[in-house]
Amino acid sequence: MFVRALVGSVMFGVASVLSVSGVFAQENPVVVMETSMGSITVELAQQEAPLSVENFLTYVDANHYDNTIFHRIIQNFMIQGGGFSPEMGRNQTRAPVKNEAENGLTNDRYTIAMARTNEVDSATDQFFINTVDNDFLNNGARDFGYAVFGRVIEGTEVVNSIAAAPVTNSLPNETVLIRSIRRR
User: Fold this and answer.
1) Distance in angstroms (rounded) separating the CA atoms of residues 183 and 55
2) 138: which of 102, 113, 132, 162 is 20 to 30 A away, CA to CA?
3) Per CATH, is 24-183 categorized as 2.40.100.10?
């Protein structure tokens, strides 16, 4: 979960520590992902990942994700989508976005992050939702890491259902369609 500790000033020789749950601010954008298996609501971390959020919302506002699929499902890891049609065709993408993996957000269960190639700054339209805590994807764990830019706030049961779908070589045996992603 997104929990941060804010170290306050030292008063009377004692450091005060304030734990804040839900780092995300109320003004953060929220999107609803309508899938063939149900709805997933995602709060985006505008302050921590401004470039990734802007990139994602540009695709959302252009209806880019309509009728794309979750094309990669690895149980006990993540579900990945946004880049392919049911026929495995690719949509036109924008220029890659700078990797914001140094933003302090971690690849915890139910967070959403930018998918990329081995090149650090190569993320375009594909994203993944972590289905478990994936510390090894965090900045500095093994490489630059993968930029988390939001978290699922409703529909975790849908994420779990998608993650449990039967697959062959990580491709779902039955299409898991992303019907749309819209701002709420």
Assistant:
1) 14
2) 162
3) yes
